Amino acid sequence: MSNHDIKIKVNGVVRTGTVSARTTLADFLREDCRLTGTHIGCEHGICGACSVEYDGQPVRSCLMYAVQADGHEVTTVEGLSDKDGKLSALQDAFCDTHALQCGFCTPAMLISAQSLLNETLKPTDEQIREALSANICRCTGYVQIFQAVRLAAERLRSGKEKVAS
Amino acid sequence: MKAASFDYVRAGSIGEICELLAEHGPMSKLIAGGQSLVPMMAMRLTKPSLLIDINEVKELKGISAQSDNLIIAGGTRQHQIEASSEVKRFCPMVQKALFWVGHPQTRNRGTLGGSLVHADPAAELPLVSVLLDAEILLQDADGEESVAASEFFLAPLVTALRPDQCLVRVSFPIWSGAVGGSFHEVSPRRGDFAIVSAAAQIALDEAGNCSRVAVGLGGVAATPIRVFAVEEAILGGGLAKTQLHELARLAADEIDPEGDLHASAEYRREVAYVLIERALTDAVQEARARMGASS
User: Fold this and answer.
1) Is residue A84, in this structure, part of any structural domain at all?
2) Last residue of a domain, one of A79, A106, A136
3) Which residues of B touch A48 (CB under 8 A)?
4) Nearest Cα to B181, choosing from B267, B268, B289?
């Protein structure tokens, strides 16, 4: 069983640690970095609760070993709000549309939705469905989550237009 | 569950991969995207003692069109293949199959080679490689070996890849003429493995006759299969709609699917019939539209 010194940039901060090879990226984030917003559900890539952004793209952090992420960048749900804890437009929209009940899937829903909004502020319903298809929610029935993503896109678009005018 | 303990090493080149495989043999395992391997390790279905990470090997990434083939390196991410203009131009069938593969999160990590060597009998990329007569290039410490996709898949999760070999790249033949293709599947949920998937690709000559055709099914046998009886019938001249209907029935009669928890054998046969008809109809329609566009 090999141990490895790793260095991963998490939410803009360089984190170092020594991990055994079998430590998943999800466990490293939760246990070593104490970033417990990343949730672990099924631990084999089905539920999507552990989604994080890895080098700018959403991935499942339970399907990677932490040692593989050595030298790479990760954004977790803790990295979505600003330094003072002010929620992002997407997070605000989730509150406004009641897009969560128990909250277990929420961090990963936010990561998946934010990745989509980073690509486009005019997502089609099909694009939203595709982006969220990898995340299972057992409470909401998904409708309000959908509405939240649409609302956030709308607000971000009008915010941009204001800045431009 | 967590994986059993293992050692980890990051390989820097194909040469290094081959040396490590030669030294450590069957107890070692390559990891690329890990989207199938990591769950299997978490469930302790496999317990490699050494994991050789090939994600940083640049030679294993890339897409290029060379004369009559579209060549995709084994470690190329599914997401990159999905977004590639070269794949869209020369071999759009691969993208049509990828539409059904997993989710954005899994395609961001998952690779072409990883899907092929995993060899799930219901997976889309193995089906498309068999459909298009892809050549799969394998390498070990002694050299390279090219294996036809039709000979690569041996049984569920079993391929012709030896434990000391690495899948280096896959060559998809580029079809000429007015080419149309279609991929359909039925699965319990979006992104799941298919209960049945069906794919068809057809090329029409200038007179509108079929010059080349491939029809394949996934999820109905131990490996993805071609339906040669249907291909022969089409090459014999049958493309009218009523005939496609009969051809789909012929395909369903040709197969011998097994039933499992997800679907009975009868249901699989019926779904195969419906999907083959759809795939053929769409492929013909697309090929005819291409012919109209180019004339």
Assistant:
1) no
2) A79
3) 103, 105
4) B289
| Domain shared by A20 and A62, yes or no | yes
The verdict on A70 and A98 lying in the same domain is no
Task: State the best of A30, A42, A60 to mutate against chain B, taking most chain B CBs within 10 Å.
Answer: A60
- Of A156, A84, A152, the closest CA to residue A112 belongs to A152
Q: Are residues A72 and A108 in the same domain?
A: no
Asked casually if ipTM beats, i.e. exceeds, 0.90, the reply is yes
Same domain, A37 and A73: yes
* Domain interval for residue A133: 89-164
Contact residues for B142 (Cβ-Cβ < 8 A; gap 6+): none
Would an 8 Å CB–CB cutoff place A148 in contact with chain B? no
- Give the three-state DSSP class for A2: coil
- In sequence order, which ranges of B84-173 are alpha helices (DSSP H)? 85-90, 92-98, 104-109, 112-118, 124-131, 149-152
Q: Record the pTM.
A: 0.94
Looking at the fold, whether A7 and A73 belong to one and the same domain comes out as yes
Interchain CB contact of B106 with A (< 8 Å): yes
- In whole angstroms, what is the distance from residue B268 CA to residue B256 CA? 9
Q: How far is CA B81 from CA A6, A80, A133, B148, B290, in A?
A: 30, 29, 20, 21, 23
B162 touches chain A (CB under 8 A): no
How many domains does chain A contain in total? Answer: 2
Closest CA relative to residue A19, chosen from A44, A42, A2: A2
Q: How far is CA B276 from the centre of its chain?
A: 17
Burial class of B104 by CB neighbour count within 10 A (0 to 12, 13 to 18, 19+): buried
Q: Tell me, yes or no, if B184 comes closer than 8 A to chain A by beta carbon.
A: no
Gap from A27 CA to chain B (nearest CA, Å)? 10
Q: Are A19 and A38 in contact (CB under 8 A)?
A: no
Local confidence pLDDT in tens for the 165 residues of chain A: 799 999 999 999 999 999 999 999 999 999 999 999 999 999 999 999 999 999 999 999 999 999 999 999 999 999 999 989 899 999 999 999 999 999 999 999 999 999 999 999 999 999 999 999 999 999 999 999 999 999 999 999 998 777 666
Q: Does B188 contact chain A (CB < 8 Å)?
A: no
Nearest CA in chain B to A41: B1
Joined together, the tokens standing for residue A158 give: 């009008």
Name every chain B residue with its beta carbon within 8 A of the beta carbon of A59. 105, 108-109
Say if the Cβ atoms of A59 and B5 lie within 8 Å.
no
CA–CA gap between residue A10 and residue B140 (Å, rounded):
37
Give a yes or no: residue A121 inside a domain. Answer: yes
Domains and CATH numbers, chain B: 7-53 (3.30.43.10), 60-173 (3.30.465.10), 178-294 (3.30.390.50)
